[in-house]
Amino acid sequence: MRAVVQRVSEASVKIQNEVVGEISQGFLVLLGIEQLDSSEDVEWLCRKVAQMRVFEDQDGKMNDSLLDQSAEILVVSQFTLHASTKKGNRPSFTKAARPEHAEPLYEEFLAQMEKQIDKPCARGRFGADMKVALINDGPVTIIIDSKNKE
Question: Domain limits of the chain?
Fold first, then answer.
């Protein structure tokens, strides 16, 4: 499971010109699910995202987490995070999970994240053509991969 976590001052997702999810200060999480992902990946990644200390504390240091700031989160599924560009110029998405495997894990990620942060998550719609807008704060952008725990 791979996530691109962006600290934002605001973010939104539209489907057919209708806003379906939006937040103010917090994280925009682009979430890619691969074939080998499981509930263990969901649990590990949710904990990492919720506890990641990239918000400024009262001294201006990156010491606070999403929880410390009572910040919000917007989660958007994005299978293209598992693109392989090894051969040629056309990306291959064979590592990305099929919808029947990915969608339940996406929903599990949302439910687990809501438990972690004790508030609802804004979200996109799985499989939809979405337009995502954001104001990256910092900018702070972190890539986390549950199969490569660095």
Answer: 2-145
Q: What was the pLDDT predicted at 17?
A: 96
Cβ-based neighbour number of residue 116 at 10 Å: 19
Q: Where are the alpha helices (H) located in 3-149, listed in sequence order?
A: 39-51, 66-69, 99-117
Of 6, 27, 55, 79, the catalytic one is: 79
The answer to whether the beta carbons of residues 76 and 127 sit under 8 Å apart is no
pLDDT surpasses 80 at 28: yes
Specify whether the backbone of 45 is left (phi greater than 0), alpha (psi in -120 to 50) or beta. alpha
Rounded to whole angstroms, how far apart are CA atoms 32 and 17? 24
List the CATH code of the domain at 2-145: 3.50.80.10
Q: Please pick, among 78, 109, 112, 126, the residue that the annotation labels catalytic.
A: 78
Annotated active-site residue 80? The verdict is yes
pTM of the model: 0.94
Q: Is position 79 annotated as part of the catalytic site?
A: yes
